Please model this.
Amino acid sequence: MRQKEKRKRQKTMNKTVTVIGGGFAGVEAAKQLTKRGIKVRLYEMKPVKFSPAHKSENLCELVCSNSFKAARLDSAAGLLKAEMELLGSVCVEQAKKHSVPAGGALAVNRDDFSLAVTKEIENDPLIEIIREEVTEIPREGVVIVAAGPLASDALSEDISSLCGKALSFFDAAAPIVTAESIDMSKAFVQDRYGKGSDDYINCPMNKEEYENFYRELINAEVVTLHDFEKKKGIYEGCMPIEIMASRGENTIRFGPMKPVGLVNPATGHRPWAVLQLRKENKEGTMYNLVGFQTNLKFPEQKRVFSMIPALHSADFVRYGVMHRNSFLNSPKVLTSAFNMQENPNIFFAGQMTGVEGYMESAASGIIAGINAARLLEGKDAVLFPETTMLGALSRYIADESIKDFQPMGAAIGLLPPIEEKIRDKRLRYAAVADRAMDDMKNYISGML
Model:
């Protein structure tokens, strides 16, 4: 048996995988491949060409915050990093080595971190770094596209062509809350005029509640866009709820919050205004705030949207965003292994797949790298357990039940609830994390 595995490994070592992009996803994919004895040709267009947001020649450049979010295990971000560490994540390893004080978060000295990752990739004898722009994805051989949300125009055009035009160029995402955090004593399930199958949870407001909400909404702080985002005409396809509201007190009451065709069973009357919530996943553990695309700062979203009575204790799985961000309609294009449904030899990784965040991008690179190697080895793709964060993200990007696919970061709401009823949120999350780590360890031992 050992001789058979040795021969198979020697055969695999003669293969080379092309990885396009030297960001978080690209370097993780490359390292997973070389750990399995597979050579990598890693393309990075810097310093020949820089995107509008990049400045450094190093790989894994941090263009925004230097924080990788919470470090504690009983958080979505902490659990994700712990799972990645089990799989030998280069980004988690170097982040810990070059961390800076940040309370409960894992933050890094951005220059030291990027330089350390770059050196690790440069020193890997199985990785050849090619500093040039890729304008077309090779159709032959195994390829991992990890070009990031700011891929060059030429490459974006080729990706769009390859994926049947299923490529968006900006996020226009409404917030998502967990089902269990919605106060159903202040909400009701009903479709307009009784049509449909009660697909919506309705969050009613009376006149006073709406006026207070409206006043805070139009005065809330918004995110400042980068110049390159403004030039892309980010609001051509939709409008932020706060901008719509600024056009008049009743604009959103006759728009996304119109109460027409709805009757509140608690009062027997039509509400003054209504926010509708729609299932975000087939399990019904998450709900989308319909029509609430927004550019408000995250703390402001929490403050203002929690003024809606049914959402007074809402747990936000994802906040709304509106910014430049190329990403695929992944459920129509990719499998949960992160390769294409129509072209299995071509994998995608990073934010372009619909995962949101530094470590989420790195995690997708790990999955793509492992599965690209397994494809070359003639093995079935891995799909981590649904109880793990890696497994949940893999399923999310391939969930065809999602009607309006938008990027998602690690969130406890993505995981199935535990059977035991635990009221304390911190203890409940800890139990979810413990289950995830046990399941991940068991899966990895079986996988190897």
